[in-house]
Amino acid sequence: MKSIMRSLSAILIVSIVLLIMINRLNAAQGFSGDNTLTVYNWGDYIDEELITLFEEETGITIVYETFDSNEAMMTKIQQGGTTYDVAVPSEYMVQKMVEEDLLIELDHSKLPNLSNIDERFMDLPFDPNNQYSIPYFWGTVGIIFNTNLLPEGMELTGWHDLWDPALENQILLIDGAREIIGMGLNSLGYSLNDTNPEHLYQALEKLEELTPNVRAIVGDENKMLMANNEATIAIGWSGDAADIMGENEAIDYLVPEEGSNLWFDNFVIPKTARNIDGAHQFINFMLDAEIAAQNTEYVSYSTPNKEALQFMPEEMVEDERFYPDPELTDRLEVYENLGQRNLAFYNELFLQFKMYRK
Ligand code: N2P
């Protein structure tokens, strides 16, 4: 009997050691399993302290990777080399991923903190009943500008001001096809969901005329450049403006009068996920009011978490540039999923614009 017990304990110990080793190996290779969770998020889009806190609370190890555009994220998920448990696409990309059968339906019973989200951000047209996605941050696209560097007498009101020759070599553009082609379309009075090739070519031409004023097309480094007074204007996302303002008092933000984009970034669970339970746990953790408040203060983007607002500094919540009322957001446009072909056309035109600059 004793020897059986001894063999059993030996087997148990060996199994435990093996399990730990497999888990470590999986984590190192970006494979998720029971005890790891692979999260794929935009760059600069989480307070990393919260990753550690989640790991401590749950014993789950997070493998964290970042992307800088919806298109880059989508390509990586389609390729399937890494199995992501949680990703954060914007609304039109959620729709596209659902269409391509890349997402699992979420189990709301595992997301009790979902009740913290403002109704205004639930059940939006791109994902009725939030079957596949949960709001993370939202915002607008607009003009981030440095009031000290603006040419004498210039009053910025909209996209049309950017073509002023006084802004030669002074504008940074975000490296996003929908954002920049959308800016071209909006400045001509067209919708940023326009798919008429004639309008799109006109938008490209209009953008090419902007070239002398464009300093660079950049990603997250726009924040550092603007904070260091290296450019007068950056076209980008509202939350970046809020972030830079924390470092440079001369920075301001404007939603152009011709119209612009209202966007929503969302948690989703790709079909290839290996740790579906852990993914729900992570999303629910991020939805906690105090966690969301800490994250929002760190990231500076606008939170859809209504219960988080009470834990945030008043001046942040009351800033209408980043928490605009529905009167403004109602006149903005949300990107629609334009379909494979049209999206490819947007990307191609954006590439042409980038090449034209060289
Ligand atoms: C954060 C990027 C936010 C993306 N660096 C807006 N969709």
UniProtKB/TrEMBL annotation:
Gene Ontology BP term (one): polyamine transport
Keywords (A to Z) from UniProt: Periplasm, Signal, Transport
Keyword Transport: yes
GO molecular function: polyamine binding
GO CC annotation terms, alphabetical: periplasmic space
Subcellular location: Periplasm
InterPro entries according to UniProt: SBP (IPR006059), Sperm_putr-bd (IPR001188)
Residues bound to spermidine: Y92
Pfam families on file: SBP_bac_8 (PF13416)
Gene3D superfamilies tied to this protein: Periplasmic binding protein-like II (3.40.190.10)
Listed PANTHER family: SPERMIDINE/PUTRESCINE-BINDING PERIPLASMIC PROTEIN (PTHR30222), SPERMIDINE_PUTRESCINE-BINDING PERIPLASMIC PROTEIN (PTHR30222:SF17)
Protein name as catalogued: Spermidine:putrescine ABC transporter spermidine:putrescine-binding protein
